[in-house]
């Protein structure tokens, strides 16, 4: 099952060449157990930084990030992360890659879990193959299986389908929803693809340009089956695009 997440008054900055760069500004968000939340916004608005803070890979300057009642200060097994690149080790079989995070378990238990999640992502026949023998979509399925094998309550996805062709992306989006239905993980995803966000999310968090703030949180009320060509789908797409067009119109013009 999933886990609730609390983000309260979170700020984050980086120092670049002695200058402080504000990345996230006063982020407040509550995510319910089992919910699928997608973050959208301009490049550099802090979406991936926020995801890394939730993962425990980055530390927020101020505020609180908590999974359940436990403050997040470092990576932990209750949170799994999938990146845009599959990050599989090329010298290991797919089976061994999936078992990588299963430390402290007997060999039989590792095999049972890797078999279970490779079957879930439809890669059972390729468990003895190596990453070089898989397509991009299959490699990303293996990365999903590896993240799920540790049975995390929260699954974090940083543009996991961004590098894939359009048809493979659609296929994996549909598979991800099936996985969510079966496993019940809380899912938080970063994407630049607005259609992907609408197809997957229970709620879409629209972030401003840097420093990232939450401009709106949109509840997607389209039911389980979502028609990408439907008028309701187009309504949500226009609503999100309007935020980006507003920000673009507010940018100062320069005479060059």
How does this structure look, described?
The protein has helices at residues 47-55, 94-98, 107-120, 136-149, 166-183, 194-200, 231-250; strands at residues 5-16, 19-31, 36-40, 62-67, 70-71, 79-82, 154-158, 186-190, 203-207, 214-219. With 256 residues, it is an alpha/beta fold. Helix 3 crosses helix 4 and helix 6 crosses helix 7 (231-250). The model is unreliable at 252-256 (pLDDT under 50).
Pick out its properties.
six-stranded mixed beta sheet; disordered C terminus; Rossmann fold; 10 strands; four-stranded antiparallel beta sheet; 34% helix
Largest sheet: 6 strands, mixed
Q: Treating each run of at least 4 consecutive H or I residues as one helix, how many helices?
A: 7
CATH topology of the domain at 1-78 and 187-256: Rossmann fold
- The shape is globular
* Share in β-strands: 15-25%
SSE ordering: EEEHEEEHHHEHEHEEH
What's the pLDDT, averaged over the residues? Answer: 90
CATH class division of the domain at 1-78 and 187-256: Alpha Beta
CATH H-level superfamily title of the domain at 1-78 and 187-256: P-loop containing nucleotide triphosphate hydrolases
Going across the biggest sheet, name each strand in turn: 6-7-8-3-9-10
Q: Which class best fits the helix and strand makeup?
A: alpha/beta
Helix content: 25-40%
Short description:
By secondary structure, this protein is an alpha/beta fold. It is 34% helix and 25% strand. Helix 3 crosses helix 4 (136-149).
């Amino acid at each position: 099952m999933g886990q609730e997440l609390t983000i309260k008054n979170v700020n984050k900055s980086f120092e670049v060449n002695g200058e402080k760069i504000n990345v996230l500004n006063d982020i407040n968000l509550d995510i319910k157990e089992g919910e699928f939340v997608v973050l959208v916004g301009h490049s550099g608005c802090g979406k991936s930084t926020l995801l890394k803070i939730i993962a425990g890979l980055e530390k927020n300057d101020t505020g609180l990030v908590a999974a359940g009642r436990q403050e997040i200060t470092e990576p932990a097994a209750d949170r799994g992360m999938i990146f845009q690149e599959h990050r599989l080790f090329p010298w290991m079989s797919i089976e061994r890659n999936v078992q990588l995070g299963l430390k402290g378990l007997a060999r039989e238990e590792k095999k049972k879990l890797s078999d279970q999640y490779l079957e879930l992502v439809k890669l059972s026949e390729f468990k003895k193959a190596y990453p070089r023998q898989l397509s991009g979509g299959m490699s990303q399925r293996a990365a999903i299986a590896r993240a799920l094998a540790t049975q995390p309550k929260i699954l974090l996805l940083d543009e996991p389908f961004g590098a894939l062709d359009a048809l493979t992306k659609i296929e994996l989006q549909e598979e991800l929803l099936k996985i969510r239905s079966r496993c019940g993980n809380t899912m938080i995803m970063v994407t630049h693809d607005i259609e992907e966000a609408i197809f997957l999310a229970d709620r879409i968090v629209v972030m401003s340009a840097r420093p990232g703030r939450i401009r709106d949180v949109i509840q997607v009320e389209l039911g389980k089956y979502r028609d990408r060509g439907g008028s309701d789908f187009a309504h949500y797409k226009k609503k999100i695009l309007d935020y980006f067009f507003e920000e673009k119109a507010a940018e100062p013009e320069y005479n060059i």
